[in-house]
Each structure stands twice: as C-alpha cells, then as structure tokens.
Amino acid sequence: MKKLLLLFLLTITFSCSKTEDDTRDTCTMNCTTLSGNFVTVDNKPLAGIEVSFSYHIGSQVGSYTRKIAKTKTNSKGDYSVDFHLNDSELGNAASGYFIISVDDKNLDANEYFRLGNNAGLGYDIHEIKNRDTIINASFYIAKKTNIKVHLNNFIPLKEGDFFEVNTSFSHGIKNENLNSLESFYSYGSGDIFQASVKTQTAIIMAAEGEKNSIIISRRKNGITLENEIHEVFIPANNTIELTYDY
Fold first, then answer.
1. What average pLDDT does the chain have?
2. Residue 36 CB-half CA count within 13 A
3. Rg of the chain over all Cα atoms, to the nearest angstrom
C-alpha cells in the first residue's frame, strides 16, 4: 500500500510540471529585445556563447517553464534576440519571473573562469512592464592564471584557528550604473587555500590581466581578525610571489 501511495504522489508531482519550448518562434511585432556582449581580458570578444531567456512559475504542487528565446554570440562577442511576451507574463501581476541563462561550455575550462553552463547559472528578472523593453546584459569572463603565495609562521593556539588566502576579481554580469572595470562587473573568486603547517607555499588561481584582491583571513587564539586585502595587478606570464605572516 505504501509503495502504491508513493507512486501516486510521484505521478501527481510530474504531471504538475510543464515545459513549453517557443525558442523557434519568430517575433515580427510588439517584440522585447535581449542583447549584449561577452568579452574577456583586454576586451577580447568571445564568440559562440549561448544565451537563453525563459519564464518560470514555481509552487509547492508543480512548476511551469516557458523557454522563450536563445541565441549565440557572434565573432565580435555580440548577441541580440527578439521575442514576444505573453500578456500573463507582463507587469507586477505576473505570477512568475524571467531568467537569463548562459552556456559557455565552448570555452576552455583550463583557460577561463566559465560562468556556469546554462542550468548552473541564471540571472533573474522579476518584472517586465512593457513589451517594447530592451534588456541589456553584457558579461566579462575572466582568464585564468596562477600566482605563488607563501604563508608563514602559522602556529594555531586553539582548535579552529586558521590562516587562509583567496582571490577575488571582476567577473560576470555588467552593472550599467558603474564606470570602472573594477566595479563594472560582478565578482568572481579563484582558489581558497588554508595553511595546515607552519610554513607553506600555495599555487592559487587568479585573473590574468586585471587587478585582483588578495584576501588574507586569520583566526588567532579563537578570535577571527579583520580580513587583510591587497590589490595586485597580475599581468600575463607573471612570476609573482607574495608572502604573508600569520
């Protein structure tokens, strides 16, 4: 009886989940536009990245997804796609929300900090008021490099004491309200390395060709100290070595 009940509940759950794919539709009038570009270090364009746009309604008893549009960046890193929004999807009375998804699996994961490959990353838009809206979504994808960091004199006195280093840098979606590379985009992070012996050397990932924040975190004698942050520009083919004491 319990097995039959479980099967019945699963059947209800799956039957209440629905996905529609309208990505092949062409909009000729009353269109909404999604456009932007993808670049990496030195404003080099990134081609072949897929961008998709969808509408989602979720609840405890089921969900609805409408795949609205998708396109890819051209040789200049630009993309643009027009689509038609339904009446039920417009305004603050709409039950759902929109997601811009990025699939950048065409990029070499050994060379770039990839953004997430579609389902792994989404940028929510909670309301679109009018169909004639132009949505701008541009992205910066950081390029990987390594730096060498020496962590010295780590002598923990209490359980839970730590000494660690991590990196932070410009990466992700562009904020149109800001005006410098350091603040234009969201932030990404490289490795987080935590010392385990008194003197240790780590090779950690950082972003090439831009300013990185090198963040040193410590807990000494059971007390977490304020982070120590150093801004370091990391050029191509760098031979940078940084040293920090506990």
1. 87
2. 23
3. 23
Amino acid 178 reads L
**What pLDDT is attached to residue 191?**
81
Average pLDDT over residues 194-206: 96
> What is the C-alpha separation between 48 and 77, in angstroms, rounded?
8
134-136 vs 78-83, strand pairing mode: unpaired
Q: CA dist 134 to 5, 33, 90, 177, Å?
A: 48, 5, 14, 16
Q: Are strands 185-194 and 139-140 parallel, antiparallel or unpaired?
A: unpaired
* Mean pLDDT of the 74-101 span: 94
* Strand-strand pairing, 50-59 and 62-72: antiparallel
Inter-residue contact 49 to 72 (CB < 8 Å): yes
Q: What is the pTM of this model?
A: 0.82
Q: Which two tokens stand for residue 139?
A: 């992205």
Which one, of 113, 148, 143, lies nearest residue 238 by Cα? 148
Strand (E) positions, 60-126?
A: 62-72, 78-83, 97-103, 122-125
Are 207 and 167 in contact by the 8 Å Cβ rule? The answer is yes
51 neighbors 102 (Cβ within 8 angstroms): yes
CA distance 24 to 42: 35
Tell the residue number behind the tokens 């090198």, with chain if given: 214
| Residue range 159-177: mean pLDDT, rounded | 87
